[in-house]
Write a structure and sequence with these properties.
The chain is an alpha/beta fold. It is built from eleven helices and 13 strands. It has an eight-stranded parallel beta barrel, surrounded by five helices. The mean pLDDT is 96.
Amino acid sequence: MGVIYEKLFRPRLFNEDPEKAHEQALWALQHLSTASPLCALLAWANRVNGARPIELFGLKFPNAVGLAAGFDKNAVAWRAAPALGFGHVEIGTVTLHAQPGNARPRMFRIPEHEALINRLGFPNEGAEAVALRLARFPAKSRPIPLGVNLGKSKTVPLEQAANDYLASFNLLADHADYFVINVSSPNTPELRRLQTQEFLPGLLKLMRKSARDRARKLGSHPAPLLLKIAPDLTFAEIDEVLATVATHEIDGIIATNTTITRPGIDHPTEAGGLSGHPVHARVVEIVRFISLATKGNLPIIGCGGIMCPADAHRLMDNGASLIQLYTGLVYRGPFFARELAHALSWRHREWV
């Protein structure tokens, strides 16, 4: 399937504007998600046989491969993810206030490097609209874990960011299995300052307290909270982040978001966050560093530049518990997740 996509379908899609092509793919998956019997049949056909589920954050993941945030920002197509072979799906980024994002064009391909640049700026319909959409599909109907990636509304100043995230979480808390605090996109002005000690401790403290208070009232376990970090942090800065994560008992790290650097690209490019093959080596370094720094006790989801099974194995070998894709789908096609899930499945089999 991958060869057919790369030879037949990808050239046609690459003749389209990247964001328009993305919207067409999203439209197709949205319609697939409404065809429940077909979705279930494809999910059955693409399942990984013989591997035990991966247990993390109190959740069970049928395989190690997830769909990263950014693909389905408004929760319109996520139910089709199992049909493509994914073991979890993350929607968003969702902000409290609906916002159009940055001006178009805002997504660009670099095919010779198997990379994308985006400066989308969190376009989405807002937390309330997304919550209403998710409310139609209760937890018991979800075949794979569902995450929600939360971001700061562009119009909200940094001093009020914690309350902005909290308000989004409160609207969406009943409708997902885990939540990601995204403080690492380069496309919302000053957002990355939330990774610093000026803002991060207060944000994580408030989010953790709210999740625990809600769980106490409901007699349930607190929703897992993860932090998504930038690949452009220094190791010293990552150490500071990890200390804050430990203090406030955040459940895991997603490493990483897109980069503002241009590794291996020697020609001018558009502004925005770079994803795809060029970022992979840096992501591996960060995953390894976090794993060693935390003695393997902090779950890590590796995200960045996975273009083949060897890339996925490299992240897992260096400490990732799960991986996520987005740009890889653009270059390898819709069933790339299935290929990776099967390639990684030996890690989760009983051999005795």
